[in-house]
Amino acid sequence: TLLAESHGFAHEVIDLLDDPEESVRRKACDVLRSLTGKEMAGAYASDHETRALLVARWRAWYKNEASSSGA
After folding, report:
1. Radius of gyration (Cα) for the chain, nearest Å?
2. What is the pLDDT of residues 5-22, one digit of tens each?
């Protein structure tokens, strides 16, 4: 799957969801949406707390997907 093929950099993209620059966060959301077909609520949040929750949700989702696919 595309997710399995992108395993090497997916964590880095997820980390970019908490970047101080809005343009970087938006691009990271776009990349994750392209890779996974998923969109999480709070994707373009400007406050750190909401972004931290978004990052945690993406990490949990990715960990579940990676363990399911054997990545």
Report:
1. 12
2. 565 677 789 999 988 899
